[in-house]
Design goal:
This protein has about 350 residues and is of the alpha/beta class. It is built from twelve helices and eleven strands. The strands form two sheets. A seven-stranded mixed beta sheet has the order 1-7-6-5-4-2-3, sandwiched between helices. The protein has a four-stranded antiparallel beta sheet with strand order 8-9-11-10, with helices on one face. It is globular. The structure holds pyridoxal-5'-phosphate.
Length: about 350
């Protein structure tokens, strides 16, 4: 399928002259900065952060083996998702296709941007149906959203199935890998160079334990990254977040230890839940949460709530009837959950 990025781009974005910030012209450190109307006191937070996030991108580039020109950084993955809509979808005209069920922000951003959102159900075993997805595409379809491991179904999608979708579509395919660090897969990063219409989303919010700093990454061709960079707010990643992210990425072993512990806990929790008579089944998980089917999900939900344990009700979501989504907590939290849920009924 031939892919023409410029023909996908909204004409107003193609012609846009981006804001040129004072710091665009100067990237050194040894200078007296009287160009941005900053306060000379309160170092270092008096200074605007680097709009190009050079230091953080260079760390990420090393860690993920992706060139800096292929990295976009956003205020959470949510920013990248919204910018993809704003760059490529014409309000009231374009549409996007997404797997169903999946992460709610794809649909919220579609509505904010007045873009029609078409859902295509996963198969009952939560696997991808490439033919059904491509069948839902029409000439106004600009984006396809995939999520692997998928939220809330917790499974990896098969790489070959995702590649069929990517190769069979002339728009952009966004593969959200927020949970990939909890899975046995290395994801689609190795395929980035050979798939010009692929955008991979990663985040520091899950395995890296940094949901509070809001740092999302989009990996794509240099051309796609240049477009997102052109339309972002100049200083979209603040100085505190940059600093924390750089720090975390230099302590990768810490993240690895957390992931190992979360994976052990995931199997313990799943094992314990499967023993309960009111658990219909727990689904195998490639993420840091479990999707669990109960005979009476709302009663379990309320029961846990009363005990101060908050889980996510997914029982009204397509293919997930009867299901609650349970995040893997600390060993102590998981023990409390098991202790309490055993008392149900
Ligand atoms: C949690 C999650 C994210 C993370 O979003 P951020 O804005 O980076 O915090 C992205 N995608 C999915 C599917 C998620 O569940």
């Amino acid at each position: 399928m031939n892919f023409n990025l410029l023909s996908l781009l909204r004409p107003n974005i193609l012609n846009l002259r981006p804001y040129s910030s004072a710091r665009d012209e100067f990237s050194g450190t040894e200078a007296i900065l009287l160009d941005a109307n900053e306060n000379p006191f309160n170092h270092p937070l008096n200074r605007y952060p680097d709009p190009h996030q050079r230091e953080l991108k260079s760390k990420i580039s090393e860690l993920y083996a992706v060139k800096p020109e292929s990295i976009f950084l956003g205020n959470g993955s949510d920013e990248a998702i919204d910018l993809l809509y704003r760059a490529f979808c014409i309000p009231g005209k374009s549409n996007v296709v997404s797997i169903d069920p999946s992460y709610g922000m794809y649909e919220v951003c579609a509505h904010i941007n007045d873009v029609a959102y078409q859902r295509v159900a996963l198969k009952p075993d939560f696997s991808l149906d490439p033919e059904a997805l491509l069948k839902a595409v029409n000439p106004e379809t600009r984006l396809i959203f995939l999520c692997s491991p998928n939220n809330p179904t917790s499974n990896l999608l098969k790489k070959e199935d995702m590649l069929s979708v990517i190769r069979g579509f002339r728009g952009l395919v966004i593969v959200d890998e927020a949970y990939i660090d909890f899975s046995a897969s290395s994801g689609l990063l190795p395929d980035l160079d050979s798939q010009p219409n692929l955008v991979i989303l990663r985040t520091l919010s899950k395995a890296w334990g940094l949901a509070g700093i809001r740092l999302g990454m989009a990996f794509a061709s240099a051309d796609i990254v240049a477009i997102l960079t052109k339309i972002k707010y100049p200083y979209n990643i603040n100085r505190l977040s940059l600093e924390q992210a750089i720090q975390a990425l230099s302590e990768e072993d810490k993240t690895q230890k957390w992931v190992t512990e979360i994976l052990q806990e995931r199997e313990i929790l799943r094992n314990e839940l499967d023993k309960l008579p009111f658990v219909v089944k727990s689904y195998p998980s490639d993420a840091n949460f479990l999707l669990v089917k109960f005979t009476d999900p709302l009663a379990v939900y309320s029961f846990l709530r009363e005990k101060g344990l908050i889980v996510r009700d997914r029982s009204r979501v397509n293919l997930c009837s009867g299901c609650l989504r349970i995040t893997i907590g600390s060993p102590h939290e998981n023990k409390l959950l098991i202790e309490q849920i055993r008392k149900f009924r």
